[in-house]
Amino acid sequence: MTKESCQVVADLYRAGDEADILALNRMEYGPTDILSTLEDLEWRYAQNPAGRATIAVVRDRDSGSIVGFIWVVPLRMRVFGKDWSGATGTNLLIHPDYRGMSAYAKLMRRFRQVFVDRDIPLHYSFISETTYSRLRPKDPRVAFEVPLLIRPLDMMKLARAHFNNRWQGLIVGIGGQLVTPLLFRARQSDLDQHNLTLHVLDGFDDRFDDFWARAQDKYPVMVIRDRRYLAWRFAGISDRQYRVLVVQVGDEVIGYVVLRCANIRGIPTGLIMDLLVEAGPRGEAAGACLMAGAWRYFRSEKMWLAGGLMSSHTAEYHIIRQAGYLPCPAYFAPQFFRLAYRVHDKKPATAHRLLPEHWFVTIADYEAH
């Protein structure tokens, strides 16, 4: 039963609200969410190299406690060859007792005002199916799907987990083991041709700034992936561990991939969090090498499945496809990944040029992992 009659007021997060936000987050997502401790909240709120986050909230008028919130996480973005101040809207959550339209409407009005008050010209969010169905017919340029690519690593265990009938699972699993080498063949790169070497790193050093300077205009719209951003985005919060693979020529970074092992709906899953390589044949060879390294790592960690998000018009998408990954069937997907963006700077030279095929998007741009 919703509390439609209860009065709520829109506001912004302030010191002392941490307990309310974390409690609401844990209630909805459980203790393993990316925001489950004070350290996690501090990471997203205050340690971001692009600046402090802003959290729009709604409060119960009588108690003052937070009953809903949405984050505005600032990001430095590269848009048509220039550095922009941008943001992502994420982690929209309203307490079940307050999920009437009044709380939602007030929260979203306060959310939109943040972009005016903070002079943020561009923001994006991953949106619900309902919102996507509403936005897409109005203007297909501002809402689009980011493909989820998957590759089975242990067909037998996947089959047993996915089918209720033991024998049906066994038959499909055996068949999968037989056809997997045919359907999911990874391309072998000739390392010697480009003098490429693959390395495992403990973190991100200054060479990633040099790499970003070369890669920053590979696509028209990208979150700036320099050393500071990568070190922040892939910090070890909530006991999350990331593995960084890099391909080099000498000491020069040619491309990198960030990996993570997780349990998603009971399936041990290897996640391709981020993949970026320099443009051209050398970068494509580096990408094949990185994907081969990812496959070996996921297999060593006994993952059943590997997957990642990647914009379909990018070279990295084709690298992942050549490594044996296929678009995830709708019935198997944990969810759809719909992205919507809004340009608040209405200058025609900016607002009317943005299209879905301009965006470079990976799991790194999706805040849940």
- Main beta sheet, described? 8 strands, mixed
**Proportion of residues in extended strands:** 25-35%
* Gyration radius, rounded: 22 Å
> Considering the protein shown, what is the CATH homologous superfamily of the largest domain?
Gcn5-related N-acetyltransferase (GNAT)
Question: Which whole number gives the mean pLDDT?
Answer: 88
Low-confidence stretches: 184-189
Distance between the termini: 32 Å
Order of helices and strands: EHHEEEHEHEEHHHEHEHEEEHEHEEH
Shape: globular
In the residues, how many domains can be counted?
2
Q: Helix coverage percent of residues? A: 25-40%
Strand-pairing-aware structural class:
alpha+beta
CATH overall fold name of the largest domain: Aminopeptidase
Q: What would CATH call the class of the largest domain?
A: Alpha Beta
Q: What is the annotated CATH architecture of the largest domain?
A: 3-Layer(aba) Sandwich
Number of E-state strands: 15
Supply database-style keywords:
369 residues; alpha+beta; Aminopeptidase; 2 domains; eight-stranded mixed sheet; seven-stranded mixed sheet; 34% helix; globular
Description:
- With 369 residues, the protein is α+β, with helices and mostly antiparallel strands.
- It folds into 2 domains: 8-120, Aminopeptidase; 148-335, Aminopeptidase, CATH 3.40.630.30.
- It is built from 12 helices and 15 strands.
- The protein has helices spanning 18-29, 38-46, 101-117, 129-138, 155-162, 166-183, 191-194, 207-215, 227-233, 281-300, 315-322, 348-351; strands at residues 8-12, 54-60, 66-79, 82-94, 122-127, 143-145, 148-152, 197-201, 221-223, 243-249, 252-264, 267-277, 305-309, 326-327, 338-343.
- The strands form 2 sheets. Strands 1, 2, 3, 4, 5, 6, 9 and 15 form an 8-stranded mixed β-sheet that branches. A 7-stranded mixed β-sheet has the order 8-10-11-12-13-7-14, sandwiched between helices.
- Helix 5 runs antiparallel to helix 6 and helix 10 crosses helix 11.
- It is globular and about 70 Å long.
- Residues 184-189 have low confidence and may be disordered.
